[in-house]
Amino acid sequence: MKRFRFNQQEIVFAVFALLFLVFSIFLNGFLTAENMLTLLQNVAVLGILGLAMAIVVIGRGIDISLIAALAVPPGLVLQMVQNGHSLPFSLLIAVLITIAFGLINGWLIAYAEVPSLFATLATGLLLAGLGQAALFQLDVVQWSQGMNGFERLGQGTILGIPTSIVMFAVACIVVAFLLRQTRWGAYIYAIGDNPYAARVTGIPSRPIIVLQYVIAALIGCFAGLVMAASVNSMPTRVFNSTLIYDVILVVVLGGIGLSGGRGGVLNVIIGTLLIGTMLNGMTIMDISYAGQNLIKGVVLLLAVITDSFLNPRNEETAQQGDI
Amino acid sequence: MNNPTKATLAALALAALTGPALAQQGLDEPFQKPFKEALAGKTVAYVPVAMNFDLTEGWYAGLKKELEPYGVKFVIRDANWNTNAGAQAVTSLITEKPAVMVVHNPDVQTYAKLLQRAENEGIYVIQINMGSAYRSSAFVGANWVEIGERQTEGVVKACEGKSNKIAIIQGALSAAASAYTLKGVENVLAKHPEIKVVSSQAADWDAAKAKAITQTVLKQNPDLCGIVGFWDGMDIGTAAAVKEAGLTGKVFLATSGGGERKGACELVKSGAFDLNMSYDVPTQAAQMAGTIKWLLSSGAKPGSIKGSEYTTLIPITKENADSPTACWNLSDLKK
Questions:
Q1: Does A289 contact B173 at a Cβ distance shorter than 8 Å?
Q2: Highest-confidence segment of A237-241, A278-282, B10-14, B33-37
Q3: Domains of chain B
Q4: pLDDT one-digit tens code per residue, A271-280
Q5: What are the Periplasmic binding protein domain coordinates in residue numbering (chain B) (predicted)?
Q6: How far B235 CA sits from the closest chain A CA (Å)?
Q7: Pairwise CA distance, residues A249 & B307, whole Å
Q8: How many CA atoms lie within 13 A of A273 on its CB side?
Q9: Helix and strand counts by DSSP (H, E) for chain A
Q10: Which residue of B has its CA nearest to A28?
Q11: Inter-chain touch A231–B240, beta carbons under 8 Å
Q12: A156: distance to nearest CA of chain B, Å?
């Protein structure tokens, strides 16, 4: 007899659906097309970052340095344009720095075999520190004349849909294609599921790990450009914020296990939707900041507890180092 | 004519006769030498909540420019948004005994006891822009309550004959500057019961959060007539949301900041902000430097005299945003 069981993805989706239903019925002005677009727009950058994190987590790693990749290369673009360089040249430099950064992360983790948590913690600090000490004049890098036109990446609409949502959708499609349709994607799952078995079967696991971090850094940089375009500046201090926890939350809440090998783009979308709905509903209700944190914490805790009741840990497959 | 007056006249006449003769030899001004001696070789320690933003960089550059020519040594302890690191920096400075500490408090309580100890140890403490519960030799900075009041007055005026719906975008809840500003907002709103606050949320000084909140609020209340924002660095996001909703010029956005040209005047000119209450950082820096000179040359015992210098605010609007004096350039101050 097949037992009726939920997995985390379904639980989170159920919580999201319930919350959505309650808000739609009781909250005036929640269920309008315009508000739905605002809701998505507000979490688009978080969602894009979630995709980057998902790639790394599926491959059984974690990338704490993602926010540095979000803040520093796009900040550098704004700073260089402010200093009189051309936009394409500045973008090229930023992309090169991002790739180099991803390569360093990947090399440390795949070849030097430093655990991903510590490697990316250190490199993130390094990149953010470099930005603060050498690259930026001020924490908030302002928009300048030379950037005009570029704000369309994060503002305005395409066919009536706010651009940042379109950017999130594009990123979703690209990442879904990478994970599900390419051989590299299959390798990432294999490495995440069982790295030793993957290596034995002849998968080039080290280069694939490096690739994961390079792609993650590039997506992080892309998210940063969307964010900068959307607020007309780059607040590089975002590195000191708790954004990285939100990103991990989106990924884990959506049902991508930190032990690797499971989940996909759909999980990120669900996690993002849940967070977005909560934030939007609470803003409409004008709940105080402390109250919002309390509610966020309770909802997340409930989802995680329910999951651990319904899906207890399997002692045979649980591994040392699982978070 | 009585006698003292006569004597004075006589003295004046004598002075007129002998004056030219003395001028040829030069006259020593008796107070400048002790002043120079009081400053030379002294250490001024600067503890901002973080470097790398317009306010703290501006103060630093301004203080350096004023004091270094007199042989004052400058040390900087960057707390980098970390309250603990800041408290440690202040603690270790107390043992290092600089002559003056210039302290930018992250909140009202954390440094209060330490600053009292510093003054007991013979260090002058000047608190800037964000004060603590301890009143030290001098406070130089903005009056946040006044900033909140004047911003709100601007918004209330702009709302006349409109929907009277306003939103408030606060900073971080733990920051005194944010709480004081909110008090100012409340003071004015108490006099205007017709104004309805549809949203009052904290955006943590974060432009992206401010934008998200403002977007949602504008969707719910497209007839909003004004927003009171608490810092121009954050309200870039608020302004971006207003612009995206196509409401620039219809929603009056008041904010405040240090008056740096890119962050203040240029954004007022572009229509992003309608009012930016500036606490003019170079003037603040000059007042700090003046206070340091006065304290060091006075010989007063640290903690024995206490005073405040609240900054005279500059309201930046479309009218004066073009003027060369309403705003300042960080690059000029660093020259």
A1: yes
A2: B33-37
A3: 32-141+281-304 (3.40.50.2300), 144-278 (3.40.50.2300)
A4: 899 888 888 8
A5: 45-293
A6: 9
A7: 49
A8: 20
A9: 12, 4
A10: B220
A11: yes
A12: 6
